[in-house]
Write a structure and sequence with these properties.
Blueprint lengths: L1 H23 L12 E9 L3 E7 L2 H6 L8 E7 L2 E7 L2 E8 L10 E9 L2 E11 L16 E10 L4 E7 L4 E5 L8
Parallel strand pairs: 1-9
Antiparallel strand pairs: 1-6, 2-3, 4-5, 4-7, 7-8, 9-10
């Protein structure tokens, strides 16, 4: 008799689990951020490399193997930028964007997202080099020392506006939403 009960119990359990799964699939679910819009900031920038050189002292020269001795040693760094974003006059993002790489000698990468309510917004973006490098704008391929964007944008529910750097035009541009770019 016991051998006949287990298939019945198994079938009842399977039916019960199926009914429970069907009931749970009817529960309303709204993901986080639903009904919002997003302003995304994404670009790669090449900053200016600044080198500081100094002469090695006789003691430092003596501590180095013969094949590594040189008159001076230079250490270089890539200057960071500050990214500031205001939405409708409110400062929503203020961060230092530092170069990538173990030695901080790689390009800078910006990837940030701000959730906003759908509708019109006044957007102000400033991306400014931190530090002194007067010759930086003459370096081939270097991002300008100051980039700014002031725009009125209008976003629908779940719409994304992309703010990115156009290297050809050397300016920040808005892409991916209904408002056309000014020319």
């Amino acid at each position: 008799m016991r051998k006949r009960v287990w298939p019945i119990v198994g079938a009842a359990a399977a039916l019960g689990l199926t009914a429970a799964l069907g009931a749970l699939s009817q529960v309303p679910y709204e993901p986080s951020g639903a009904g919002r819009a997003v302003v995304r900031f994404a670009w790669r920038a090449r900053s200016v490399r600044v080198e500081e050189c100094r002469a090695l002292t006789p003691q430092e020269q003596e501590n180095l193997p013969a094949h590594m001795r040189r008159a001076e040693v230079c250490e270089g760094t890539v200057l960071p930028y500050r990214l500031q974003v205001r939405v409708d006059g409110e400062l929503r993002l203020n961060q230092l964007v530092e170069p990538a790489g173990a030695r901080g000698d790689r390009p800078l990468f910006v990837f940030e997202e701000l959730e906003v309510t759908p509708g019109p917004h006044h957007l102000e973006v400033a991306f400014e080099r931190v530090g002194d490098a007067a010759s930086g704008d003459t370096e081939p391929g270097a991002t300008p020392a100051q980039l700014a964007l002031t725009r009125q944008i209008e976003l629908a529910v779940n719409e994304v506006a992309l703010i990115t750097y156009d290297a050809t035009r050397r300016e920040l541009v808005v892409r991916g939403h209904g408002t056309p770019e000014p020319r």
